[in-house]
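Tutorial, part two.
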Amino acid sequence: MQSELSYEELLDAYHDQEQLIEIGQELVRQRDIDRLLRRILEISLHITGADAGSIFLVEQSGKDSLLRFKYSINTSLKTKNYEEFTMPRTTASIAGYVSLTGKTLNIADVYELPQDAPFSFNKGYDQSTGYRTRSMLAVPMSDHTGTIVGVIQLINSKEKDHESCMEPEQIILEKPEDFFTCVVPFKQRYESLMEAIASQAAVALENAQMIKRIQDQFEQFVLAAIDAVEQRDPATSGHSYRVAMTAVKLARLLNSQDEQDGKAPRFSESNIKELEYAALLHDFGKVYIDPAIFLKERKLYPEDFEKLQLRLKYLRRSLELDFALRESRLQKDALQRLNEERDKTIREIMEISKLIETINMPTVTEIDPEEAISRILSMPLPPVHGIDNEPIPILTAEEIENLKIKRGSLNERERKEMEQHVVRSYEFVRRIPWPAEYRRIPEFIRVHHEMLDGSGYPEKLAGDSIPIQGRIIAVADVYDALTAADRPYKKAVPIPKALSILEDEVRRGRLDSNLVAMMRCLVGENQNN
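Running the prediction step on this input gives:
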């Protein structure tokens, strides 16, 4: 057969073989299913000189086998990707016949099918658009097991001898006569060539679908992990999702900034997905932290505060009883002095109770906790003893440690335990066999609490040693922690105040100035919308 080909056709066949190799390499690299289908069809049209084409995919719906009209191109009508639909997978249609028999069909004119043909051509599309389908090449897409997963259907070959016609891509079928003067049957050699392309396409599609399934599984795993965190810490419900959404938006803003500066965007779609997963999982280590720490509303736990209040009431009642016993043995003048001493002591105990209630709040107050505690401990209250004659203190050492907290509700030990969530998150996610494009997720999680001035944790990293992804998550994390709905230990901060706090952190050298500026732009866009 090759000897019957002209020199131009031989040269064309040689180029087709070269393209076949390139196509195989390209299809293997493409992982986005929609882009893959579009590329398969574009390549098929280019090689065969077809004016139009469609891809059908086999799918199962319960017991029914269907063909999904997935993607389409029509060069002359300048249309791409018609609305998807499904049809029964039977031999009544050309695509259905090819998908069930695995046979390639090369039809010179679909309007002139033999009367005994087991399939027919649906003229509905031609009648509604004024288009005229003539030649058709329909090829099955078989995966590595031989299972047919779809059909490539090419329409109206425009490839004539090179001397007598323009390049197929330049021919537009507009007038009715164009469909007869410029359309020819598909060359027989394209059958085997398209079968090879269809097989490569089927394997590439199978790989892309498998990768998507793996990605979906990872996605579901990540979402399940977030649910586990939020079950442990209901007060921060939605925090991880909001941080991830903000981080992705900041990354896209950085890409826009790069493009405006004439640079290549620094984040690919894969990079952005990697950042999103890292932001979603940044707090997973909190599942290892004592839930009581999450829910600690005040500096003292409720039961500890209640015990302290009961102790103060016991002190008051004990002193009142002591004064009453002394009162019964005193003369009038001494009695007046005793009453004055009693009233003064009771006032001091009540003042202590109110002072403790004030400094137990996690918010910053005008009263310095240490000064308040010094005042409490220096008050000249008479000593009180318990049933076994043990001294009863106004404040225990543990209560003093907690009440001295100047910011928040956690003492030093609890804060260090809370900070361990970063290490625990890192240790957990680094054991996951992430795909190559997501391999830096553990690194981004490990640095999301590091600050540019080296004051962060857990490793006190500074400056350029903190990757941009870690800085993005840090800004998104701080902003959401400030503006999120009321938590047990704090009220939500208004957005202007939150932005002001972020900018103060920039002045202190802790947060990335460019990212904080973008955060302000992002908040402005959200408010306008």
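The longest strand covers residues 50-61. In part three we will examine how such features are distributed along the chain.
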